[in-house]
# Entry
Amino acid sequence: MIDILAVLIGGFIGAVARFGISSYLSRKIITSFPWGILSVNLIGALVIGFVFPDNGDVSKTSELFLITGILGGFTTFSTFGMESIELLKKGSYLHLAIYIVVTVFGGMLLFSAGYLL
# Structure
């Protein structure tokens, strides 16, 4: 039961943080490019790489709270998919290609950078 609460509370924190940051960036950077979701996904990749437990020093409950809960609620693959389809429907093919490449490869690079830190 404690693991479920850890994911629930962490997910709430992460989702609210994602909403706040992506909403703020969408108001400040007014373009047809999805800067808000791109930013949270890249930030999330960096932080997940940094806190990724590979040595057993982190408890399972702490891992569930931070990685599954907070960072899982913060990052969002489903919104990435939705934003991609919106760019496709608008005919913004260059923006779509940039968005996909930066999200996928940028996320991998930032995860690796966080892991190396």
